[in-house]
Amino acid sequence: MRNSFLPTGLLVTLLTAGSSLAADTGTAAKGPNTKGNPKGSEPQASAVRDLSLAEQLAVYGYRTNDAIALLASAQILKSTPTKTSRATKTSAEKPRGKKAQAVDLTAEGVLAKARELAKGRKDLLAIADDVAGQTGRGDVNGPGCHRDAVDAHNKDRYSVVFQAEQSALVTVTGDGSTDVDLYVYDGSNHLICKDDDTTDDMVCRWTPAWTGKFLLEIVNLGNVYNDYLLCTN
To answer: Order of strands, edge to edge, in the sheet holding 83-84?
Structure first.
């Protein structure tokens, strides 16, 4: 049986390409409901980061017509277990602005595009067949994810409860069309973390001092809507 995992060298090349494919953690702020530095990695946090990387690889692959990047993305998406996010959207739905073309960031859509770009390359098509046959690990501790879109010059808001003394992780990965920022507030409206660089790949991590509700605010600074994946551990 062929091994569907892409060679390490190819992934390293992708991760060091001209476009940044790994988002830095946003700026954390000390608030009443935060406790020291975030704790170390746990399975849920690892899965959230994997999904964020998969989305970034997919966007990169679509933009550069790179079948290898898309195959790597599909492989991660197929093998990383997810469940419905605990985050509840509190902002009203708005009409979407126009955009030239929306890309399919599902595992099936990414894999189909990879096949299209492979153009008869038997090695890549063989990898695509193996990736298509992959099944998830079945880990019940998979991250919670929610796919949505934020309109131009607008913001989406979510409410989510994080547990005391457990590392809280939020990632938002957009479709690459606009600059999107992420802000996290505690129940008393104190800013806990922000990721406001010029990309639409955002990460915030902190450790709550007690179990409580947090507000996630996703702000689109661009002139068209942005499809994004929100994941929480």
So the answer is: 83-84, 144-150, 226-232, 168-174, 201-206
- DSSP codes joined into one string, 101-113: -----SHHHHHHH
Residue 29 or 154, more confident: 154
Residue entry with tokens 């409901």: 33
Answer yes or no: pTM beyond 0.70.
no
Q: Helix or strand or coil: residue 121?
A: coil
Least trusted range by pLDDT, from 63-67, 154-158, 181-185: 63-67
The CATH number of domain 8-232 is 3.40.50.1820? no
For residue 178, name the pLDDT band (cuts at 50, 70, 90). Answer: very high
Domain boundaries, the chain: 8-232
List the Cα angle 23/27/33 in 5-degree steps.
125
State the alpha helices, DSSP H only, in the chain. Answer: 8-15, 43-64, 67-79, 107-118, 122-132
